From TrEMBL:
<dbReference type="GO" id="GO:0032259">
    <property type="term" value="P:methylation"/>
</dbReference>
<dbReference type="GO" id="GO:0008168">
    <property type="term" value="F:methyltransferase activity"/>
</dbReference>
<dbReference type="InterPro" id="IPR041698">
    <property type="entry name" value="Methyltransf_25"/>
</dbReference>
<dbReference type="Pfam" id="PF13649">
    <property type="entry name" value="Methyltransf_25"/>
</dbReference>
<keyword id="KW-0489">Methyltransferase</keyword>
<keyword id="KW-0808">Transferase</keyword>
<protein>
    <submittedName>
        <fullName>Class I SAM-dependent methyltransferase</fullName>
    </submittedName>
</protein>
<feature type="domain" description="Methyltransferase">
    <location>
        <begin position="38"/>
        <end position="135"/>
    </location>
</feature>
<dbReference type="InterPro" id="IPR029063">
    <property type="entry name" value="SAM-dependent_MTases_sf"/>
</dbReference>
Length: 263
């Protein structure tokens, strides 16, 4: 998918799914000792980095990502949030050799990033090495792209492009739908928690929700342009101009969280 709007879409996800993000940050925060050292893997626009830095005022967070544009956006947000002195960014491709992260981490946070990495077993072994004994890994994953359209025709369109997205992810070797509990155990972690969040936000929704739908559907339209029928592309084009003003949208998303502890 194109890079356009990636930072905005991630920021909107954080805003619109605020209650979910707050609950998970509280959970992760409860695992951290005083003055924790935290590493955010695939930090993106900084949703986890900034929320953890705000929630834990004496935490130091290292945000890792391979995308320098997103890291720049993250740094600007960290300045605006007044936490820049406790946040550092490191550009790294986590499928290659990992950078030296210094002292072992107390908490590693990986939200919507593990499924991107080429070799989950290798990644988990790297995380295990990066953590101190007794440190925690929090994995947050999404089961699929969110859904927005409440009418039957819209839901059928979403079904079709969701199926195509799943095929594309499979072809690209992405690890969506993994049982990370099993993977954590195989990598030598103790699984300390596992929870699924079924999110459904109904109208009236804040205006940001309609923008979230618009940006998300535009990304799908551009990412799948050559894989969908011309009718579906035209339907997505039409939605791009209308969906931002709709007041009947529903936001449905499923997220799962696993907590692993390095023994
Ligand atoms: C869906 S975004 C999630 C961002 C953020 N964690 C959040 O929850 O909003 C996935 C992020 O993983 C990063 N990523 C994907 N593959 C990566 C790799 N091999 N090394 C480092 N970062 C990677 C992407 O650049 C992107 O920022």
């Amino acid at each position: 998918m194109p890079h356009d709007h990636m930072a905005e879409m991630l920021d909107l996800d954080a805003d619109v799914l605020h209650d979910f993000h707050r609950d998970v940050i509280n959970w992760a925060g409860s695992l951290a000792p005083d003055r924790p050292r935290i590493v955010d893997l695939g930090a993106g626009s900084g949703t986890g980095t900034l929320a953890l830095a705000r929630h834990l005022p004496d935490a130091r967070v290292t945000a890792l990502d391979k995308d320098e544009d997103l890291l720049e956006h993250l740094r600007e947000r960290a300045v605006a949030a007044g936490v820049a002195d406790r946040v550092r960014t490191v550009r790294a491709d986590l499928d290659l050799a990992w950078p030296d992260l210094g002292a072992p981490a107390d908490l590693v946070w990986a939200s919507a990033s593990m499924h991107h990495l080429a070799d989950p077993a290798r990644t988990l072994a790297e995380v295990r090495t990066a953590l101190r004994a007794g440190g925690f890994l929090v994995i947050v994953e999404l089961d699929s792209f969110p859904r927005f359209l409440p009418d039957p025709a819209g839901a059928a369109l979403e079904d079709r492009f969701h199926a195509e997205l799943a095929r594309m992810r499979h072809e690209h070797g992405m690890h969506m739908g993994e049982d990370w509990g099993v993977r954590l155990t195989a990598a030598g972690f103790e699984v300390k928690g596992e929870r699924r969040f079924d999110i459904e936000l109904r109208p009236p929704l804040p205006p940001r929700a309609a923008r979230y739908a618009q940006v998300s559907l535009q990304r799908v339209r551009h990412g799948l342009a050559d894989r969908l029928s011309s009718d579906d592309v035209a339907a997505l084009d039409a939605l791009a101009t209308t969906v931002g003003d709709r007041d009947d949208l529903v936001v449905r998303a499923t997220r799962s969280v696993w907590i692993g502890r390095r023994p």
